[in-house]
Design brief:
The protein has helices at residues 9-21, 27-41, 49-56, 61-69, 76-90, 159-165, 176-189, 201-204, 207-215, 261-268, 339-348, 353-361, 373-404, 413-416; strands at residues 3-4, 96-105, 118-119, 124-125, 128-138, 141-149, 196-199, 220-224, 229-232, 237-238, 253-254, 259-260, 274-281, 284-297, 302-304, 307-308, 313-320, 326-331, 410-411. It is an alpha+beta fold and 418 residues long.
Length: 418
């Protein structure tokens, strides 16, 4: 992300942080929070406590360490202030809320929540902490508003590690889709405005997640695996057919069998794919080939042998990524939605990649060396606040440039605040 130079960035940071500082109960916390944010956006190459302290708080490393790792301040008021700030930057009916997760690679087994699942960042199984993330984005401007640690099942009853890392008693192992719904509820309650929820197949494959979004009256577009079962949109459900022998059948039968998302799209044929340009990129128009058909998702009541009745009607979209690769998606957008709308929703999910990447590479999200629950969540929250501040600077610079007709030189965020 490029941000315009702001010569008064420290003064702007002081003004911008005021609503956040109101969430602290003690004077010392209000003092060290801005110092920590300055350390995150400052020139230190590594954003763990010691390198940052050498730059922004020489001789006060212990105080900075205590602020993030031990001071028992409640992050909820700051998280609510972050949502309010993000909504002011990018919220509105055109905004999207993107659900995803991101991994922090760790060595050893003592950091809170660490486990060896598959790590997409490395392309293999590796020790890492997994955070469920929620990002508010409008067009190409994202602001991460939630990072919550996923607690693996192995930590559920490991009382020794829980005590060592200060895992609070209420914290338990939950499926990520359930955590995501709780985060959606939290940011909505804090005032976030958005028109659609986006998620990848890790969440989209879960019927409970899709159903939870529908129950909340939220529009959604999610990835699904190729084996996701669907029915034709005109499927009907009749009365149970009489059994030739044995007990009478209890369940109704669909008029046609369910097929996989892949089979449904293949049945449409290659002519069903149409080129769509969903936006202009820095290197020219971004195009793709998409096919779309109305279906009923096979996530209704179970009728035995793992089969389910037709559920909600939705769009099934196939994307031709290459000659050999196709991706599949479901969307509950209205039946009259154009392919361009569907394509923009599908591609809008990638807005979460920018904050994930920059918070790690530039702001040190994965540089934290503490092992505790409270320390990790404090650090993650301050990293999100730092990223939101840089987005504020960038948008402020764009407005100034538009007002004066000048083009400001783009620089990396680290250079913008040196």
């Amino acid at each position: 992300m490029a941000a315009p130079v702001d010569p008064d960035w420290e003064g702007e940071l002081e003004r911008w942080l005021r609503p956040f500082l109101e969430g602290f109960r003690h004077k010392a916390q209000r003092r060290w929070a801005p110092v920590y944010v300055r350390g995150l956006v400052g020139p230190a190459r590594r954003k763990s406590v010691s390198p940052m302290a050498r730059v922004v708080a020489p001789g006060d490393r212990e105080q900075l360490h205590h602020f993030v790792c031990a001071s028992p301040w409640d992050g909820a008021p700051l998280a609510a202030a972050l949502v309010k700030a993000a909504d002011g930057l990018v919220g509105g009916p055109e905004a999207r809320l993107v659900v995803d997760d991101t991994a922090l690679v760790k060595k050893g087994r003592d950091s809170v929540g660490v486990a060896p699942p598959y790590c997409g960042e490395l392309g293999k199984k590796a020790n890492c902490q997994s955070l469920v993330s929620v990002t508010l984005a409008q067009y190409e401007t994202p602001v991460c508003v939630g990072l919550r640690l996923f607690l693996p099942a192995s930590w559920e009853t490991d009382q020794k590690r829980r005590r060592q890392c200060g895992v609070p008693e209420p914290a338990r192992h939950q499926p990520k889709w359930e955590m995501a719904l709780e985060e959606i509820d939290r940011v909505r309650a804090a005032g976030a405005r958005f028109g659609e929820v986006l998620a990848d197949a890790a969440y989209g494959m879960c019927a409970e997640f899709r159903r939870g979004l529908t129950e909340r009256e939220l529009t959604w577009t999610v990835g699904v695996p190729s084996v996701q079962l669907v029915y034709p949109a005109d499927v009907t459900v009749g009365k149970p057919k009489p059994a030739a022998t044995g007990r009478p059948r209890k369940h109704s039968e669909p008029s046609t069998p369910a097929v996989s998302a892949q089979e449904m799209i293949v049945h449409l044929g290659n002519r069903a794919f149409h080129a769509v340009t969903w936006r202009q990129g820095t290197k020219g128009p971004l195009r793709g080939r998409f096919a779309a058909v109305r279906v009923r998702v096979a996530d209704g009541p179970e009728i035995g042998q793992g089969r389910r009745l037709p559920g909600q009607e939705a769009w099934l979209i196939g994307e031709q990524r290459s000659r050999e690769e196709r991706r599949y998606y479901l969307s509950d957008r209205p039946a009259g939605a154009a392919r361009l709308e569907l394509a923009r929703s599908i591609k809008g999910r990638w807005a979460c990649e920018q904050p994930h990447q920059q918070m790690k590479q530039e702001l040190g999200l994965d540089h934290f060396e503490g092992r505790t629950w409270i320390g990790l969540h404090h650090h993650a929250l301050m990293t999100m606040i730092a990223f939101a501040f840089l987005q504020h600077l960038r948008l402020k610079g764009k407005k100034n440039a538009s007002r004066t007709g000048r083009r400001l030189p783009p620089v990396c965020p680290r250079c913008a605040v040196n």
